[in-house]
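As described in the Methods, two query proteins were run sequentially through the folding procedure within a single session, without resetting any intermediate state between them. The first query and its resulting structure tokens are shown here.
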Amino acid sequence: MAAPAALQRIGPSLYELAPGFRAGMRVPVRVFGSEKLVAEMDDQVFLQAANVATLPGVVEASFCMPDAHWGYGFPIGGVAAMELEGGVISPGGIGFDINCGMRLVRTDLCLEEVRPRLRELVDALAGRVPAGVGSRGFVRLTDEEFEEVLREGAGWALRRGFGIPEDLARTEAGGRFAEADPACVSAHARERGLHQIGTLGSGNHYLEIQVASGPGIFDAELARSFGIDRPDQIVVMFHCGSRGFGHQVATDYLHSFLRDMPTKFGLEVIDRELACAPFASREGRDYYAAMCCAANMSFANRQVILHRIREVFSDVFGRDAEALGIRQVYDVAHNTAKLEEHEVGGRRRRLLVHRKGATRAFPPGHPELPAEYRSTGQPVILGGSMETGSYLLAGVGSGAASFYSTAHGSGRTMSRTRARKLVRGRALQDQMAARGIVVRAASMAGLAEEAGFAYKSVDEVAEATEAAGLSRRVAHLLPIGNVKG
């Protein structure tokens, strides 16, 4: 792999492909990252980002985050903002797992208290939070109740007793995309999602017990503002999305857009994986409304999982969740399109921002942040591999250069098939146990796919993210227990 010769360095951690790189480009491609990370990016990343730059209504640039790698349509780690009139919405710029996202929870527990009961804790979490392909949750819903989930998001879970009001305040968009309309969702998608609330799923989804220790704290004051305030503190991070429901929503509209582009919209795209519709069209608005339903299902899913985590910790330690200091730090999505206001060319504009494997990172003072984070900037959760740990970061003002978007994870360096050929799941589980990391996996093959060597260095990605001015490092969180989908 090698970056294209046309890629020019235009800043300390910023590279650009001018519009002449590929016919039809309306804006440049801008790639954030260190020289090493950019050099290691798959050739397809640059080609896909250039393809995104050809879409109607794209504004400013087609962006790649430091963790970017090849994906479907957009690169994973791709960001593009579209005009509302004349611009398009593309499922390939959002992803099949709509509102796949991260949630971080802090506790008052320390490593010394948890280590003797770690295996019991991981086993109990694996028993209460179903993981793996086809997993079904404990929440039983009628079709009418599922519609309520699609409209209300995490608020529905709170109304059902699965959480506390503070959880919603500390969730992106309050845990609800208001433009959701269940009438825009197919019966097949509803059928697939009906029994999946409260489940992790498979692939790179996980529920992880982590330690925030002194050497891993980059900004102690900011860490305290986020609730990381004691030595060897235990936190819990989990990563999941809208499961088969979101996948079906994306699939349904991709097929209809491919059919309608030449006949209804007069659109032609350079790659059929970028199938799209004008955002102002009825079809474009219908997909947006269905995508918001999937985002809300995902927020509700993570809210129910948090409820189960509180139950497990309470049972294992014999104290209620409040006494254990179990409080949500933040929940943020990384597969969405959102209507946001940004300054472009010296004026405020309302745009549709596609973030595919990229995370929102609003700066201090942003009006959409909860009051307790208004002075700190938004907590940002950057998930790493189950062997190397993850990062808590914060949004910064310089993030305006990317529509306040940042990296979402460490990013794969090899296929799942290749990873399975290099290690067996059982052997990996034993190796991690020898290093003090207890793992429970729904599938040993799935465990092998997520080996640490299959990912970029999370340390390098976090450092490059900060150097690029996208977000700043707050704490490195090290894994000690993992429930793997």
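Immediately afterward, the second query was submitted; its sequence and tokens are:
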Amino acid sequence: MTAAKTGLRFLLAALFIFSGVSHFIRPEYFVPIVPPYLPAPEALVAVSGAAEIAGGIGLLIPRFTRMAAWGLVALLIAVFPANLHMAFHPEQFPQVPSAALWVRLPIQGVLIAWAWWFTRPAPHKTPLAT
């Protein structure tokens, strides 16, 4: 893995760990984001926060990087309906500018692609034939 890719792996891990910890420090911010058709918003916030922390830590451990990255891709896809809910109901989130709610949607795609990048196996170097 190149130094740049390693640095980006550490950055992504830090983002997920920070976000996951935030779920426990400020659950009152995350609970309203859970779409109303889902049950137990407090539990879902705790589970998603724990998954973010676990995924972030997993990215830091080479043996678990690929598995953690797949888990984070799945998590990002699973929470996408919450981002859609926010974008379609901006009146429920007056503290967030409406444009920011829409910008989050493509950012989610970037995060999915970023995590997916770490699901790829390292290329094998073959010795040159002599």
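The longest helix spans residues 65-88. We note this only descriptively and draw no conclusion about the first query from it.
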